[in-house]
Design goal:
four-stranded antiparallel beta sheet; 28 strands
Length: 428
């Protein structure tokens, strides 16, 4: 056995020396190659090692270095994902923080990947662990992308390109525009809503299945979908004033027993707080409503929340103390849940014609929102409402939504130019 292992090592060394000699001859260092050949024969007492001129060694070194860069990028990303579960308490205006805001502003992000649909791209979402991202389009298609692959795409070797393509699934089953999109928090399901008045459930582990495994038909176009953290219940907003709550397994529907507490015009957005004791809704009637997460009883209404304009998005802070909203009055507002007071207003972007929305970044240090006029992304300090420079995105039509990763400095921008751009901050 020892003799065999020694012989294997000798063959590996001989192969290496042949590569070195061949590279030297390829680079016109004939004398150096000859001297090395003579020295090796004298040192080993063996035969003269000869090799034709070849640049194989330089190719192997180039591939090896590029592969190492990909691994380092992937390792850094994996560490960020591990850190994602320890992002801190998030925004809390009751306490001063001694730590300077270390989150990168949007102008520090760069495009890591671009994917195209065949029509305007309207919605996007991430999984709760930030590993997958999905987009939906007016062409009725859905795409699911691997975040790690998008980040390392530009670094990958050419021979790895096909097997490591960022788009891992393209799904078709809707008959009209995809208008709502979310991942199930527990299962491997992507759930989408559409103008075709259906909700479709796709199992993205089934590579060859592009159709939905479950379908729910409604009487109006779907606007927003949100899951309870257990995955057992699904909230749904549509072109109708009444919010639906579904048992995800049985698809049994529940609505609030008090019709007078409902919105007076269609609901545009809906979301749960972190512990699912409450959910929030926003509507074309200009109001924001807070609902008990168990009884579905309306516990608070912020009337005329955006000067009578449509309220296009709502999001709870992680600690549940605040609600972030945006409206077609081009103002983003931060509300205190207990008092119903506006604590901050974030101005500087134009949002008048579309349901573009606003959201926190992953640490809740910043707030981002699309600007309809400049085809840019606005950014503010969440605590002080101080504006930061806008990100010029390169989109050549209106940005309809931005979706920020819950675990890392990355977001997706979706535009009427048919493209979705994945943005990432590489500076950490």
């Amino acid at each position: 056995k020892q003799w065999y292992q020694r012989r294997v090592r000798e063959r590996e060394q001989e192969r290496l020396y042949k590569l070195i000699i061949g590279q030297l001859r390829s680079d016109k260092f004939e004398k150096v190659a000859y001297d090395l050949t003579v020295a090796l024969k004298a040192a080993t007492g063996g035969f003269m090692i000869s090799s034709a001129p070849t640049n194989r060694l330089s190719q192997l070194v180039e591939y090896g270095l590029r592969y190492e860069e990909v691994n380092e990028e992937t390792e850094t990303h994996s560490k960020k994902l591990e850190m994602g579960m320890n992002l801190g308490p998030g925004l809390d205006l009751e306490y001063d923080t001694d730590d300077m805001n270390s989150s990168p502003t949007v102008v520090q992000y760069e495009t890591a990947y671009v994917t195209s649909h065949k029509a305007p791209c309207r919605v996007a979402c991430f999984t709760s662990d930030g590993k997958l991202c999905a987009t939906g389009s007016v062409d009725a298609s859905l795409k699911i992308m691997d975040v790690e692959r998008m980040i390392s795409k530009s670094q990958q070797l050419q021979r790895q390109e096909n097997e490591n393509h960022p788009v891992i699934r393209t799904l078709y089953d809707h008959l009209d525009s995809v208008t709502a999109l979310t991942f199930h928090p527990v299962t491997t399901h992507l759930v989408s809503g559409s103008k075709d008045c259906t909700v479709k459930v796709f199992d993205f582990t089934k590579a060859n299945v592009k159709k939905a495994v479950k379908c729910l038909e409604e009487g109006a176009a779907i606007r927003s979908i949100a899951f309870h953290s257990t995955g057992d219940y699904m909230l749904m907003a549509m072109d109708h004033p009444i919010i639906r709550l579904y048992d995800y397994e049985t698809l049994k529907c529940f609505v609030s027993s008090n019709n007078h507490a409902q919105h007076s015009l269609p609901v545009l957005a809906i979301c749960w707080n972190t512990d699912c004791t409450m959910y929030a809704s926003s509507s074309m009637d200009g109001s924001i409503k807070l609902w008990d997460g168990v009884s579905s009883r309306c516990v608070k209404t912020f009337s005329d929340a955006h000067a009578g304009a449509d309220v296009t998005s709502v999001q709870f802070s992680r600690n549940g103390k605040y609600v972030l909203s945006s409206g077609k009055d081009s103002v983003v507002r931060l509300w205190e849940v207990t008092s119903g007071n506006v604590l901050n207003e974030y101005v500087g972007v134009t949002q008048q014609n579309h349901r573009t929305g606003a959201m926190f970044n992953h640490t809740e240090d910043l707030i981002i929102a699309p600007d309809e006029k400049g085809m840019a992304v606005g950014c503010w300090d969440a605590r002080t409402a101080e504006p930061h420079p806008q990100l010029v995105t390169g989109h050549n039509n209106v940005i309809r939504t931005v979706a920020h990763s819950p675990t890392m400095p990355a977001f997706m921008s979706c535009s009427d130019d048919f493209r979705a751009r994945f943005w990432y901050y590489r500076g950490i």
